[in-house]
Amino acid sequence: MGPVFTGPAARCQYKSLPLRDLPPLGMVRQARLALEDSRERRSGVPAPGRASAFSAGDWVRVKDADAVRATLDGRDRHRGLWFTASQWSYCGRTYQVEHVVRRMVDDHYRMRRLSATTSLRGATCLGADRSEGCGLACALLFRDEWLEPSTEAAADPLTPVRFVTVRSLDEIRATLDADGRLHGVPFQPGMALFAGTSHGATPVRHRSLARWQRPVGGDWYVLDSLRCGGEPLPLTGCDRQCALLWHSSWLHLDPA
């Protein structure tokens, strides 16, 4: 196995998204990061939540929309967790449990405790037809109450937009600064394991972001099934399962 990146580069990509944080509104993200870092130093992190009734690898069916809606409050939440707009497209479909989520960094960079919650392989904020969401292919979270066991296998996933091969570690290292970053985004330690491998790729399109927060640094991609395993936060643990970000200079792009 080749070398991996450690030290300052071993940080969470989600906390270092390649966004243009222009003042005044663009500074909110940096302020939230500082606030939550301070809060964590003072109060520590919450203990992991209760495990799901389902395990990684189980086949489950997302309940029909009416059954899911019956579990939600007036804000489309169940025990505080939002059933998102793109999540409705998965109702009635069958997926494999990818991960049991018990603790994760939330959208405001605070470490949260979750119980009886999973992520499903292929169920992301892009929606079932990959036309929705923020463009980061965030893993959607499903309460146990929204799922039921299934003995069926899922349908084949959608065809990737294009295929890529991850460049060698030497080529990738040549693009990084002394802190192991490119345009502020760390090349996480676990990503080194995929050097030389080929994957389906989808370009990142931040459809839901305001203009003052558009991505910087050229073209970024997410690669099918390659997600963060929480390695950058070893002392706290994070089950968010963010899609890893790959800059075009880290990839050989096959013809579209």
Number of helices: 3
| Helical proportion, percent range | 10-25%
- Total number of strands: 16
Q: Which secondary-structure class do the elements indicate?
A: mainly beta
Coarse shape: globular
Largest sheet: 5 strands, antiparallel
Structural Rg: 18 Å
Beta-strand percent range: 25-35%
Unreliable sequence segments: 6-10
Topology pattern, helix = H, strand = E: HEHEEEEEEEEEHEEEEEE
Spatial arrangement of strands, main beta sheet: 8-7-4-1-9
Q: What's the rounded overall pLDDT mean?
A: 84
Oligomer: single chain
Distance from N terminus to C terminus (CA atoms, Å) equals: 31 Å
Keywords:
256 residues; mainly beta; 3 helices; 27% strand
Briefly, what is this?
With 256 residues, the chain is mainly beta. The protein is 10% helix and 27% strand.
Verbal overview:
The protein has 256 residues and is mainly beta. The protein has a domain at 7-21 and 158-253. It contains 3 helices and 16 strands. The strands form 5 sheets. A 5-stranded antiparallel β-sheet has the order 8-7-4-1-9, with no helix packed on it. The model is unreliable at 6-10 (pLDDT under 50).
